[in-house]
Design a protein that fits this description.
about 900 residues; alpha/beta; five-stranded parallel beta sheet; globular
Length: about 900
């Protein structure tokens, strides 16, 4: 009787006790072949060491080391196939499993009488096991190294399903079986031992406690016990596990619980949510997400043929993200596919606890709805833990211990108790922890946050704790405001970035019904520089606009003027110059009425910047002169220096380089006198530009390098990036394109670290210009397109015009003059709308390119028609046309 197996490129013949490779015998001894034969016959099952020894050394007593030698020989031979060295898997102290490819070619063996498989009461799964490949490997690996492994996680995260799958895959490694004890239906701690005894077939004898009877039963046995749903019976589970592990050296336990058992030797394994998709990815790559895999598999059971199409991909991704990748939530959502479209399910997830009901009727009641599952955990908490869990729901995007100690104290919770309570909630898997920059940060999954928030509202406490949350983050922003210029600017920007969702939440509360709109205006007025530096221009303008419309001018005029100033700066940055002018003029009027002389000077300064950006140089000069006079009257030397610098900018743009140089040098002298290195760095930068325009390239480079050194010393990464950009421009202008590219790329790297999207776009544009100069229009097109995409996101309309003109230059290089004319026309129209003409220094290049394109067509009428077509485009049409890369 014979069996022949194909194992990848190998063939195993049991009758001949031979292993061949490509038809040739492999040098593997008969004992190794016998071991391999047993493993292959029971592929994907764990085979005990005893079974393997009996097969290779029948009726002979040998040491386990002999088996290890044969396993090593097998692995060396199998390594001839790709990945073959991993085909024999080890379960430490238990046995081995063959996981390579196996095909049975012929089987003439007599059927075996009986079965060698150990007994087990593991329930047969009714659904497929989806995802969790890494967690499954980790669970089996940890189980081989410890005797008590506790899978911890929130309700519905899939602890039971993973434990059952792992137990099923190692069942053959335990001589006396794998036994499943479901504790969910038990309500009394005293019944834990009873549940285990019932599963193991142990009867209580007179005079012997049941726990002792269990310990006597497992002595000398090699078995795996799965204690499922321990969290509500923790003391009983702890006592049982401790007693059994002490009684039986070869007994192991897998427990599932929402918190550890705290038994000596316990290994905990926190179970994360399923991996989430990238919402911007295409359908094909979204299948890598475990959350998507589970949802699709379960949805297909409700609606045969349900598939992930490109049209449906984004909505499915959003659904998985909204549900935090929690398996129970995804399964309940999939059940709704019978009656709702994916779009309708997604829209209703704002009230997920009403939508996600009606799961499998045979499941426990707490597994039939998402709310019931979380209720189960919540009801097990102490009153103080429940209170803190509800209070921290006011945080968005996480929080620090310091924030919780300020926001959540009172009404039964003092500051000293907060850390212990948070630690306890984290142990129970209700609060997540993570480390950022050496500090611990806490957070709630969004599903838990919504649940706790509902509880807070049910108790009528939402308004009180949201007010505390707002007050804390208003104080944070007011403190940060004083640090957003200078050496520690970057650290504070990073801190505000981490808290951005909390600040959004605070602003939303303040501007809503019952909120503190006046306080919100103060917060937004102090926060605008963050929005400016991190590229959140449209968002910042939105908050400021809403709050300015909500808060009357008489409530807090000083705060209103400050908010108007911030809104005006953001509008100017987006080249919305008419709006910027209106905002700054209103702010100036308020400050004149208040007699705020410094505020007046600042408003005049900003109005001068708007006029300069619009090319209205006479008005800009007059406004800066008035601002300078106001600062001189105040005797405020820093303000005087800044006003002189701004006047220098106006002279520079007008081509009056001698006057600009005088103004910059006077400004720099004041900054040096004040020891203001930040100001020195700026004026050196500007002086370098002037000197270069005057023809002294070497002096210009030396000044830029001095400015760069100062900015590096200050840790002014934005200034460093600006200096690198200027050095890149100098290198480009003198034809040193490799150096120019290197400077711009260094600048881009810094800006990406900072998250300054506005400046990233500008630097990408510079890199595009270098690529054009180097005769690489293909790279230039890609760089200009990336720059344009970012500029559209941040609504930098002047930047969009520049990008359109850059892409027009590229079109000329590709002999696409009609396309170039359309983009120039669109850019011209946009410049007219925002009042931002082409800079004088760029006019010559611009006019040469237009003339070259017109000449290449040789048909003025066709060129003009294309130009007018571009002018007629909306902004979105023009951007879409430019990003298409070619004409339809």
């Amino acid at each position: 009787m014979n069996a022949v197996f194909e194992i990848g490129p190998f063939r195993l013949d049991r009758e001949a006790d031979a292993l061949t490779h490509a038809g040739k015998p492999v040098g593997l001894g008969p004992r190794a072949v016998a071991v391999l034969s047993v493993l292959v016959e029971r592929a994907n099952e764990y085979v005990t060491k005893a079974s393997l020894i009996d097969a290779a050394w029948p009726n002979v007593v040998v040491e386990e080391a002999n088996l290890a030698v044969q396993i090593s020989a097998i692995r060396r031979v199998l390594a001839q196939a790709p990945g073959g060295e991993h085909w024999v898997e080890t379960l430490a102290r238990r046995g081995y499993r063959f996981v390579g490819p196996v095909t049975l070619l012929m089987d003439n063996r007599k059927p075996r009488v009986g079965s060698e498989r150990p007994r087990s009461n593991l329930p047969a799964p009714l659904t497929s096991f989806v995802g969790r490949e890494r967690e499954l490997v980790d669970t089996k690996r940890l189980l081989s190294r410890c005797r008590l492994l506790t899978l911890v996680g929130i309700g519905g995260i899939g602890k039971t399903r993973l434990a059952l799958q792992a137990a099923a895959e190692v069942v053959d490694a335990y001589r006396d079986g794998v036994w499943y004890v479901d504790l969910a239906p038990r309500a009394d701690v005293a019944l834990v031992s009873s549940a285990a005894a019932q599963v193991l077939g142990v009867r209580e004898a007179a005079g012997t406690p049941l726990l002792q009877a269990l310990c006597d039963h497992v002595k000398g046995r090699q078995l795996l016990l799965l204690l499922d749903n321990c969290e509500h019976l923790l003391t009983g589970c702890t006592a049982l596990a401790d007693a059994l592990l002490c009684s039986a050296a070869e007994l192991s336990i897998i427990a599932t619980s929402r918190e550890p058992l705290h038994v000596s030797g316990e290994q905990t394994y926190p179970l994360p949510a399923l991996s989430l998709p990238n919402p911007m990815a295409i359908a094909e790559s979204m299948h890598r997400s475990e959350a998507v895999q589970l949802f699709l598999e379960r949805a297909e059971k409700q609606q045969p043929g349900f598939a992930l199409t490109d049209a449906r991909a984004s909505t499915v991704a959003q659904l998985c993200i909204h549900l935090d990748g929690i398996p129970l939530a995804l399964e309940l959502a999939a059940a709704r596919v019978r009656s709702l479209s994916i779009e309708e399910i997604n829209a209703r997830l704002t009230d997920r606890f009403k939508l996600l009901t009606g799961g499998i009727r045979t499941a426990l009641p707490r597994q039939q709805t998402l709310r019931s599952s979380i209720d189960w955990s919540y009801d097990l908490l102490r009153e103080s833990e429940q209170a803190l869990l509800c209070r921290v729901s006011v945080f968005a995007g996480g929080w620090t211990i310091a924030a919780a100690e300020q926001v959540c104290i009172g009404d039964g919770i003092d500051e000293g108790a907060v850390l212990d309570l948070l630690s306890s909630l984290a142990d129970k898997s209700l609060v997540m922890t993570e480390e950022r920059n050496g500090a611990t940060r806490f957070r709630l999954l969004e599903t838990m946050r919504q649940y706790a928030g509902e509880r807070l509202r049910e108790h009528g406490e939402d308004a009180h704790w949201r007010k505390r949350h707002f007050a804390y983050f208003l104080a944070v922003v007011l403190e940060a405001e004083t640090h957003l210029r200078g050496a520690d600017e970057q650290a504070w920007l990073d801190r505000l970035e981490v808290e951005h969702d909390n600040l959004r939440s605070a602003l939303a509360w303040s501007s809503g019904a019952g909120g503190d709109a006046a306080g919100g205006l103060r917060l937004a007025g102090a926060f605008w520089r963050f929005w400016l530096l991190r590229g959140y221009l449209s968002e910042g303008r939105g908050w400021l606009s809403d709050l300015l419309a909500t808060v009357s001018g008489g409530e807090d005029p000083a705060a209103r003027a400050k908010a108007l100033n911030g809104a005006g700066v953001l509008a100017c940055q987006q080249a919305d110059f008419p709006t910027a002018r209106v905002l700054h003029e209103e702010g100036l009027a308020i400050r004149r009425k208040l007699g705020d002389r410094r505020g007046i000077a600042v408003s005049l300064h900003n109005l001068g910047l708007v006029a300069c950006d619009q090319g209205d140089y006479p008005s800009a000069r007059a406004l800066h002169e008035e601002s300078l006079a106001a600062f001189r009257e105040l005797g405020e030397r820093p303000g005087i220096a800044h006003s002189l610098n701004n006047q220098g900018d106006v002279a520079y743009h007008q081509g009056d380089y001698d006057f600009a140089r005088t103004l910059y040098e006077e400004s720099q002298a004041i900054h040096r006198e004040l020891g203001d290195k930040w100001g020195i760095g700026i004026t050196l930068h500007n002086l370098a530009n002037v000197v270069f325009q005057q023809g002294d390239c070497l002096r210009g480079q030396a000044l830029h390098e001095e400015s760069l050194a100062i900015r590096r010393e200050l840790g002014d990464r934005g200034g460093v990036a600006q200096s690198l950009n200027s050095l890149g421009t100098l290198a480009r202008d003198r034809g040193d394109f490799p150096s120019a590219k290197a400077f711009f790329e260094k600048s881009e790297a810094i800006l990406r670290e900072m998250g300054d999207r506005w400046s990233i776009a500008a630097t990408l544009h510079h890199l595009g210009t270098v690529a054009v100069d180097q005769g690489d229009p293909l790279s230039a097109r890609a760089l200009y397109m990336e720059s344009l995409s970012i500029r559209r996101e941040v609504n930098d309309r002047r930047g969009i015009a520049c990008s359109l003109e850059g892409l027009a230059d590229v079109a000329v290089a590709f002999d696409e003059s009609i396309r170039a004319a359309r983009m120039w026309g669109a850019a011209e129209q946009l410049r007219m709308e925002i009042g931002a003409p082409v800079q004088p220094s760029e006019c010559n290049h611009y006019q040469r390119q237009v003339a070259a394109a017109r000449g290449a067509i040789g048909d003025d009428a066709a060129f003009e028609l294309a130009w007018q077509v571009g002018r007629a485009m909306t902004l979105d049409q023009a951007v879409k046309y430019a990003l298409a890369g070619k004409d339809a």
